Amino acid sequence: MDEGSILVTGVGQAGSQMAAAFWAQLCRDHQIIPETGRSDAEPTGHWQKLFTAVGTGSETHYVPRCLFLDSDPRAADDLKRTWSELFNPANFVTGVESSGNNFAVAVREVGDRLNSDIRAVLDREFQKTPAPTAFIVFQGYGGGSGSGLAAGLFEILKDYAPAAPIMTVGVLPSTSVSSPVTEPYNAVFGIEAALKHISLGLVFHNDILLQLAASHWEIEHPSIPHINKLIADIVLAMTGSIRFSGDENPANSLADVIHDLAPHPDFPLATGAIFPLQSILRKNASVRTSGQILNQVLEKNLDLCPCADGKILSLGIYGKNRAGLQVLRKNEKDNETAIPHFARVHLSTEPSPHSAICVLVNSSSIGSWLQELCERFDQLWSRRAFANWYLEAEMTEYDIETRRREVGFRAERYQDI
Question: Which domains does the chain show, CATH number per domain?
Answer without folding.
Answer: 5-261 (3.40.50.1440), 272-363 (no CATH), 366-415 (1.10.287.600)
